[in-house]
Prior knowledge:
CATH 2.40.50.90
Amino acid sequence: MDASVRPGAVNNAGVVRGEPIAPREIRVLDGGTIHAHGHTYRLVDFDAPETDRARCEAERVLGQRASHRLRQLVNAGGLDLHQIRCSCPEGTHGTQACNYGRRCATLKAHGRDAGMILIGEGLARPYHWGATRCPARRSWWQ
Length: 142
C-alpha cells in the first residue's frame, strides 16, 4: 500500500487503506451491516441471513445468530475497517438503488475477515458480484 495514503483515504486504485477502529465506534445493525463514523456500511464478499426482511422464521433466527456473532467479533476488538468502492452502476452510489444507501467495506477482527469467520461458522455464505452489479439474492433454504 502506498505509504503516503493515510488510514481511511482513497488511493488511485479506489481502495481505502484500513483504518483501526475501536469497538465503541461500531454499531452492528445485522449480520452484514454496521454503522461507524456516521455512515452505514454493507460488509462485502458474504451474505448473512436477514432479520427484519427475513423470508421465513428459520432465516430470521439464523440472521439473529449471525448478528450476535458479529457483535461478539466487534466487542473483542482488534478491528480494521476498510471502505471499498462498490460495484453498483455509476450514478447510483449513495442512493437506495445502491445497497440501500450503504457504503461498502470489509471488517477485519484481529487480522481475519469478519465475513469469512461467519461463513466458516455456517452463519453466512459467500456473495461475490461483478464489476457493475450484484447477483440476485437467493433463498437461504434452496
